[in-house]
Amino acid sequence: MDLGKSARIRLDPEDEYMHPIEEAINFNESMYINLFDHQQACGGWFRVGNRPNEGHAEMSFCFYLPDGRVAFMFRRVEIAGNDALSADGMCFRVIEPFKQLALEYEGKAVLLDDPQLMEDPKKAFASNPTVNVSASLRFTGMTPVYGGEAVDENDQPIEEDPDESFARGHYEQHMKGEGEVVIGDETFSLNGFGLRDHSWGPRYWQNLYWYRWLPLVFRENFAVNVSIVQMASGRQHIWGMVYDTRDGSEPVYDLIETASLNSTLDDRDQARAQTFSLKTVSGREYQLSGEALALIPLRNRRQTDSGEWRQTRITEAMSRFQCDGLIGYGMSEYLDQMVEGIPVGRGC
Fold first, then answer.
1. Are the C-beta atoms of residues 228 and 235 closer than 8 Å to each other?
2. Phi-psi region of 117 (alpha: psi -120 to 50; beta: other; left: phi over 0)
3. Is 79 within 8 Å of 64 (Cβ atoms)?
4. Which one of 64, 90, 321, 326 is most buried, counting C-beta atoms within 10 A?
5. CATH of the domain at 190
6. CATH no. for residue 250?
7. Mean pLDDT value across the chain
8. Residues 182 and 230 in one domain
9. How confident is the model at residue 207, as a pLDDT?
10. What DSSP string describes 99-117?
11. Of 203, 222, 244, which one is at a domain's C-terminal end?
12. pLDDT (mean) for 116-127
């Protein structure tokens, strides 16, 4: 988005908390966090998204076990406001703005030997065992925070078309995390790294044509987050940041200036591996590769005012990454609109 000469990006400690409900029917406020234990090669991601004008919140729990199984739950629950990011047993709690965050979950998940079964959610939930699960995790900021909300010269949010907007207010931060996740009768004590995301504003998953999102961490002094977003108009937006203080440089994010990505797809057109090149504003260049250790395909469907059904596929893969001889872990998240069963971004 072209912010114009008088616009700026604003981010205050108060933005860690809840925002006023806006008029757009698709107003969304959500928090997401992931965490991966490098020694055990396991971890997961967790999300609560409030849609108060639509009367519900969305809760997602996804945990990748070391043997390739995935424990997953998604629920829509009724809400009457936007008071907290807490739904169906999952709760995000800010301990200290931009520094410490806690996540708690107590509920159930379907345990999938074959995560691909989630292509048909109804069948997957009916034909696989449901187990009790819990998570108690605490996170500490590893890096500065990047992002915020575009505001005008009067500090008022710059509005966007609700049918084109996606996470108007939005910031991210790499984190260190530790705690315990219980899946049925298996307990995982985690100590690792991840990334968190907080966003607010109008959102439809169908507003984007496709995107590729790769948040990952190699070690406490080297982490990456890159997004390549394509709109239906053909406009492409590349953004993200690298945190690399291996040489003792200043502990700040180095913003990504250019990125290129090549994906290796399976017979379902799902990304099983990728190579990507990055160049930052400071002139640093990086060559990275990733491979999916476990991948679960998810979907979002929306019926338009004209009655047309639109379907979005989001593949969520816990991935192992390599760069400069180092091994890291994170996510490779691929969103595509589906047209006649084909992902529109299959060439990327």
1. no
2. alpha
3. no
4. 64
5. 2.40.370.10
6. 2.40.370
7. 94
8. no
9. 86
10. TEEEEEEEEEEEEESSGGG
11. 203
12. 97
